[in-house]
Amino acid sequence: MIRTIAFILFSIAVVSLLLKLSWWQLSRADEKKQLQSQIQDRQQMRVVDLAQLPVEPLWHSITLEGEFDNQHPILLDNQLFRGRPGYHLYLPFISQQQQVLVNVGWIAAPLYREILPKLPQLNGRKVISGVIAPAQQLLQFKPDNTDEQWPLRVQNIELDRLALQLQQPLLPWVIQISASSPIALTQTWQPVVMGPKKHYGYAIQWFLLAIAVVVISLLWLRKEREV
Predict the structure, then answer these.
(1) Is 147 helix (H, G, I), strand (E, B) or coil?
(2) Torsion angle of alpha carbons 15, 17, 21, 22, nearest 10°?
(3) How far is the CA of 159 from the CAs of 81, 177, 216, in angstroms?
(4) 71, exposed or middle or buried, with CB in 10 Å at 0-12, 13-18, 19+?
(5) Which residues on neighbouring strands pair with residue 110, listed in sequence order?
(6) What's phi and psi for 61, nearest 5 deg?
(7) How far apart are CA 72 and CA 166, in angstroms?
(8) In this structure, are residues 75 and 151 in contact, taking their beta carbons and an 8 Å threshold?
(9) Integer Cα distance of 223 and 16 in angstroms
(10) Contact 203, 150 (CB under 8 A)
(11) How far, in Å, CA of 214 to CA of 91, rounded?
(12) 194 vs 207: CA distance, rounded Å
């Protein structure tokens, strides 16, 4: 009797957990749908003056005129493209007396780790277009070496720390340059990593697992009664 009660309680806990995971995936899918809709709406409104930016500027399209700071390039490490290791090249861009990091695109890494890639020199005044995006933040097992010389090779785009090293304030977001820009490198950036369809798929998997646990539990209980 105690064994049966324990099994029932265990089965209820497992089914509840699986249903909760399924519901969570459904909520994540709804969030991704809203985010995609928000991105599409905001990208249709192009901003050309930093003073025109709304309180929440993320995902708005933007066009700015200014100059790149070629003396302080930043290489975001561990960026794969078609199986080849490389970097995302970030350059400070000065416009309207403010400074923002621009992700110019992907650049292949040389064969040897100690050798850095040859970087483009974007001199003179430029007009850039792109999308306002959050800085990329990934799991980091150790802090970046703050004693590195330029170009910096980093694991994350930490705007506060980079502003200290630049000795200049940075806007609290980055610009992902448009793929159609003549100065853009290879573009591998995507605004949404996982679309809502995958979340719906995971939700169905968790739900089917919950059903499977219920069926197995009922079969086990039926067998116990027959014994």
Answers:
(1) coil
(2) 20
(3) 24, 18, 52
(4) exposed
(5) none
(6) -75, 145
(7) 8
(8) yes
(9) 23
(10) no
(11) 56
(12) 20
What is the overall mean pLDDT for the chain?
85
Is residue 193 very low, low, confident or very high in pLDDT (cuts 50, 70, 90)? low
Mean pLDDT of 113-123: 92
Three-class SS of residue 143? Answer: coil
The span from the CA of 100 to the CA of 203, in Å, is: 39
Task: Write down the residue that tokens 């509840």 correspond to.
Answer: 16
Integer Cα distance of 96 and 50 in angstroms: 8
List the structure tokens of 24.
Answer: 């969570």
Residue type, 203: A
State phi, psi for 132 to the nearest 5 degrees: -75, 125
List, in sequence order, every residue forming a beta bridge with 191; answer none if it has no partner. Answer: none
Asked whether residue 145 carries a pLDDT value surpassing 60, the answer given is: no
